[in-house]
Amino acid sequence: MKINQKEIILEIDHLEKQYEERKILNQVSLQVKKGEVIVILGPSGCGKSTLLRCVNGLEEIQGGLVSFNGWNVHDNKNKIYEVRQKIGMVFQSYELFPHLTILQNVMLGPTKVQHRNKEEVKKEAIQLLERVGLSEKVNAYPRQLSGGQRQRVAIVRALCMKPEIMLLDEITAALDPEMVREVLDVVLELAKQGITMVIVTHEMAFAKAIADRIVFMDEGVILEETTPEQFFSNPSTDRARRFLSGFSYEKVKEEEKVAI
Ligand SMILES: Nc1ncnc2c1ncn2[C@@H]1O[C@H](COP(=O)(O)OP(=O)(O)OP(=O)(O)O)[C@@H](O)[C@H]1O
Ligand SMILES: [Mg+2]
Known about the structure:
Bound molecules: adenosine-5'-triphosphate, magnesium ion
Helix content: 25-40%
Number of strands: 10
């Protein structure tokens, strides 16, 4: 698919986020172009999840701007539901409805929220589930699936809403190691298809393989924004070097074999 590399779909400009007196995000600015894959790295508690939550208006902000397709996310309260439909979000915990089948879970948003044609959505949902290797689970219930399979359903559920951007927050963090790969493979496939994504992960080899740009944060500040090649071979801050040294070379090599 040919994508317009010039089009900025998400612009974060000098974003400020506080919880009471505590500053969580400090002058964070980032632009995401259509088709780009941004990976956000940084130590626990540095504000990665908070940043993603600010992007789709789940958090109030204290300063700056989040603009999605030209809409000010925090200044368009009546548009926020419309905006959120265009932003697919997948978290660490995949909250599927236990009493609905996989297909019903995937169809719920497009039919109930977007009021799209049921047959059309069903066709799309089945196709998407096939694409992530779950065609046999269409009529199963979430409890009958493994964690990795459930997380793939959560990705499909977000995709079926036809989002313009996907935000993925540590989607493999709760999975057993052998299930991580099946989920990451699906995300790599989405990247190949040109889906715009902002991904928070602790899987370094995966980050290296998938990112167009790496954003490294610490204590609510973006310290580096660069190519994966540059970041992993020669980070420009000591903080990033220390962060990376926590992931041993052998471990990254081992993960690399898995991710690629
Ligand atoms: N609702 C809240 N109220 C007060 N403080 C919060 C709230 N949510 C998050 N924080 C604080 O904001 C900081 C950033 O949290 P955040 O969850 O964004 O970090 P993170 O980078 O995603 O970390 P991790 O890698 O562990 O997921 C943390 O210090 C956290 O304690
Ligand atoms: Mg987090």
